[in-house]
Amino acid sequence: MMGLMQQWPLLIHKVIDYAALQHGTQEVVSRSVEGPITRSTYAKVRQNALKLAQLLKKDGIAPGDRVATLAWNTARHLETWYGITGVGAIYHTVNPRLFPEQITWIINHAEDKLIFVDLTFVPLLEKLQPQLPGLKRYVILTDAAHLPSTSLPNATCYEDWLAGADGDFVWDSFDESTAAGLCYTSGTTGHPKGVLYSHRSNLLHAMANSLPDAVGLSSTGTILPVVPLFHANSWSVAFAAPMVGAKLVMPGPKLDGASVYELLETERVTITAGVPTVWLMLLDYMQRENKTLSTVKRVMIGGAAAPRSMIEAFERGFGVNVFHAWGMTEMSPVGSLGTLKSSVTGLIENEMFDVKAKQGYAPFGVEMRITDDSNNQLPWDGKTFGHLKVRGMAVASAYFKGDGGDILDEDGFFDTGDVAHIDPQGYMQITDRAKDVIKSGGEWISTIDIENLAVGHPDVREAAVIGAKHPKWDERPLLVIVLKAGKTANRQDILDYMRDKIAKWWMPDDVQFIDEIPHTATGKINKIRLREQFKDYTLPEVTKAE
Ligand code: AMP
C-alpha cells in the first residue's frame, strides 16, 4: 500500500522561492570581481534567476542542456545556478585552476552551449575559444561600465542582458531525479570524469548538511564559504544557506588571509568553510598581525586533511570551534563530519583534539564501510585500515556519459579510493589515498599521519610524504618540508621532534626542504608532481650502500 501524501518534487527552484518568501531581505554580500563589496538579498537573487531562466529559454537552452560557469563566489554566480536549473538545464562548474587543456577538454566533453564567465577569466577564454566550437554565447558577469573589449564571439554583458527581461517566468517542472549540476573530478590521472548531481540529491544533501550536528546553519547565522562554487558543488552551501535563510557572504576572487579576515569581521560571519591551504593563509595573517576573531564561532575544514596543529591553532588561539569534514565530488560532496556526538562529549581537551583530527562520522544518508582487497568488511576498531567505500542518497552511481564504466561493487558501494580506519564510535580517519600509501616491507604506512605530525613542529609550514625506493623494504617514507618564513629547523630537529610520536618504522628515512609544495586544482598536495620532482632522489642509506 502506498502512502497518501502529496508528491512534492525536490526541485532546486523551490529553495530560492522559499528563501525569497521567508527570508527575502536576508543579505547575500559579495566581494565583487570589480572590487567593491556589493549587497543583494535572496529576493533579488530569485528575481535575477527568474530573468536569467527567461533569457536562457529565449536563447534556446533546453532541458538537459549544459551551461557552464567559470566564476568566483559571488551573488551573480549564485543567480546563474538557480536560473539554469529553473529551466531544467544543468550548471557545469568549470574549475579555473585546471590546466587550460583540461578546461577545453571538459567544456567540450560536457558539450556546454553557453558560458557565464567572470572578468578574471575572459583572457583565458579568449585563448581557448577557437577550440570551443560548442559555446554559442559568452555572458560576462559584469556591468556595462566594466565590460572589456573582447574577441569572444557573441559576448554579452550580464547586467545589460538581465535588464532586457522582466522576470515574468514560471519555473519549469520536472521529475526530482532530473540532472541539475555537473562537476568534473580533478583527474590527476587520465581525463577528468563528470559527476552529475540531480535536483533531489542536491536538496537532500543540503538538508542533511544544515542540521545542527552537521554544518549547523540557521537564519540567525552568517556563512562565508571560502570553498568555491566550482569545487565539489560548493559543499552544498549554495543550497543549504538559502534553505535556512542564513546570511551568505561570498568572498569573490580574494582568498588571501587579509581579505578573508576583513570579510569575516566586517560582515560578522559566524561560520566559514574551506580547505586547509586557505586556513593556513588566514592563520598566518592573524598571527602575524595579532588579530582576533570576534564573531566566528565555527570553522569547517575539508577537502584535504586538517592537521591537528591547525585545529588546535584555531581553537586555542582564536576560541572557535573547528570541525573536520571529508568528502569527494562523487558524494555531492560531504561524506563525514567531525562534530562531537554525545558519546564523545566530556573528553579532556587532548582526547577531544584526537577525535577532531579524525575526518568524522557519516551523517544520515551516507553509509560507510572499510574492506580488504577481497571486499571483506573490516572491523571498526580504530586501527585496522582498508578501502573506504560509500553508498547513499547523494553518492554517484556512474560518471557522466558512462566514463569509467561500472563504478559500484555488487552491494552498490562506491570505492572512494581512500584508505581509512573507523573507530567503535563511528569516527573515520583517512590514512591515505590508496595510490599514495607507502608499502614498506609489505606493511602500509600512512603518509597523512606523518604529514600531520610534521606540521606540528613550530617551524614547519607544510609537509608532504612520498615513498622513496628502497632495495630491502621496497618503499620508505621521504618527508618533504616547506619551512615558515625566516625559520631554520634542520633535518635532525624535525626527526627529533617526531621521534616517539609515531611507530619507529613509520619514521621518515630522510627529510628534504623545498620552497613550495605543488597543489592540485582543488587545493590538495599534488603527490604525482612531487613524486616527479623527486624521481631521481635516492635515500641517504641507499646512496651509502651503493
Ligand atoms: P575532491 O573530489 O576534489 O573533493 O577530492 C576528494 C578527495 O579529497 C577524497 O577522496 C580525499 O582523498 C580527499 N579529502 C577530502 N576531504 C578530506 C579530508 N578532510 N581529509 C583527508 N582527505 C580529504
Which features would summarize this protein structure in a list?
546 residues, alpha/beta, Rossmann fold, GMP Synthetase, Chain A, domain 3, 3 domains, eight-stranded mixed beta sheet, seven-stranded mixed beta sheet, 16 helices, binds adenosine monophosphate
What does this structure look like?
- This protein has 546 residues and is α/β, with parallel strands linked by helices.
- It has three domains: 9-26 and 41-199, 3-Layer(aba) Sandwich (Rossmann fold), CATH 3.40.50; 255-435, ANL, N-terminal domain (Rossmann fold, 3-Layer(aba) Sandwich), CATH 3.40.50.12780; 436-545, ANL, C-terminal domain (GMP Synthetase, Chain A, domain 3, 2-Layer Sandwich), CATH 3.30.300.30.
- It is built from 16 helices and 24 strands.
- The strands form five sheets. The chain has an eight-stranded mixed β-sheet, sandwiched between helices. It has a seven-stranded mixed β-sheet with strand order 7-6-5-3-4-8-9, sandwiched between helices.
- The longest helix has 17 residues, at 42-58.
- It is globular.
- Residues 185-186, 232, 302-305, 324-329, 333, 359, 416-418, 430, 433, 522, 524 line the site of adenosine monophosphate (AMP).
Helix and strand topology:
Layout: H1 12-22, E1 27-31, E2 37-41, H2 42-58, E3 66-70, H3 75-85, E4 90-93, H4 100-110, E5 114-117, H5 122-128, E6 137-140, E7 155-157, H6 158-163, E8 179-184, E9 194-198, H7 199-210, E10 222-225, H8 237-244, E11 247-250, H9 257-266, E12 271-274, H10 276-288, E13 298-302, H11 308-318, E14 321-327, E15 334-337, H12 349-357, E16 366-371, E17 386-392, E18 414-422, E19 428-433, E20 438-440, E21 443-445, H13 447-454, E22 460-470, E23 474-483, H14 491-498, E24 510-513, H15 527-533, H16 540-545
Parallel strand pairs: 1-11, 3-4, 3-5, 4-8, 5-6, 6-7, 10-11, 10-12, 12-13, 13-14, 23-24
Antiparallel strand pairs: 1-2, 8-9, 14-15, 16-17, 17-18, 18-19, 20-21, 22-23
Helix pairs in contact: 1-2, 1-8, 2-3, 7-8, 9-10
Bound molecules: adenosine monophosphate.
